[in-house]
Amino acid sequence: MPELTFNNLSEDRKKEILNISFEEFALSDYESSSLANIIKKLNIAKGSFYRYFKNKSDLYFYLSRFADAQVAINFSRHFNNTGGDFFQDWINFIMSLSEIEETYPMLLRFRFRAAFEQSREVTSLHNIEKRQDRTRIISNMLRMYQENGLVSKEIDLDFFSLLMVFYNFAISEFINLKYEIPHNSPIYPVNKESYMQDIVNCIDIIKRGIKA
User: Fold this and answer.
1) I want to staple 110 with a disulfide (CB 3.0 to 4.6 A). Which of 22, 97, 161, 197 is the partner?
2) What interhelical angle do 107-115 and 11-27 show, nearest 10?
């Protein structure tokens, strides 16, 4: 958790620290990422940074929780079971991720890399429990759609919840590759119309299935 000194900073300064940190961890794996690089870009003394976070892992876990919270806000906003169309709600949610990048450009890239991080220092039991909590939330959301007759009652909710998590990553990666977006840039293009149909087509694979 961040120190009180960090919480007392202005919102603009906190955002600057987060964005520089997101970029560092998004462009390199955990072991290769460097606090020294972050401190240099922030133009502060090393001692000053440790008044904000205890160490590298403390910063990393805070970034992970913060990133998850930003996505969760959008998730709850679009999957509130008021639209009636589960697949349209899913499309709207993925489209909304570009809004996060307007404030935190590298947050989604960080989150993508963090999901597949191999360092033992950050692939702890805590992270396993976090993934279980994430799929549990999705499963509970899907159950509401089931009860309203909007999603098949034949599917295994736990499995489909996990599938949704990684399918969202897969769609982001597809957009990233198709439009040849530089690795040091936000994942989603500025022009939303350019990838809207791609997201619709990707979700449609789940909606219709692949059997001929």
Assistant:
1) 22
2) 40
Q: At what angle do helices 86-103 and 56-78 cross, to 10 degrees?
A: 140
Average pLDDT, the chain: 89
Cα–Cα distance, 3 to 62 (Å, whole number)? 11
- Residues 177, 69, 100, 203, CA torsion sign: positive
In angstroms, rounded to a whole number, what is the distance separating the alpha carbons of residues 17 and 190? Answer: 24
* pLDDT, tens digit, 9 for 90 and up, residues 116-136: 887 777 776 556 666 677 788
CA distance 160 to 117: 23
SS (H, E, C) the chain: CCCHHHHCCCHHHHHHHHHHHHHHHHHCCCCCCCHHHHHHHHCCCHHHHCCCCCCHHHHHHHHHHHHHHHHHHHHHHHCCCCCCCHHHHHHHHHHHHHHHHHHCCCHHHHHHHHHCCCCCCCCCHHHHHHHHHHHHHHHHHHHHHHHCCCCCCCCCHHHHHHHHHHHHHHHHHHHHHHCCCCCCCCCCCCCCHHHHHHHHHHHHHHHHCCCC
Distance of CA 162 to the CA centre of its chain: 14
Q: At what angle do helices 125-147 and 56-78 cross, to 10 degrees?
A: 0
Predicted confidence (pLDDT) per residue in 65-103, tens digit = 999 999 999 998 998 766 678 999 999 999 999 999 999
Q: Could you tell me which residues come within 8 angstroms of residue 81 by beta carbon, excluding any fewer than 6 positions away?
A: 141, 144, 145, 148
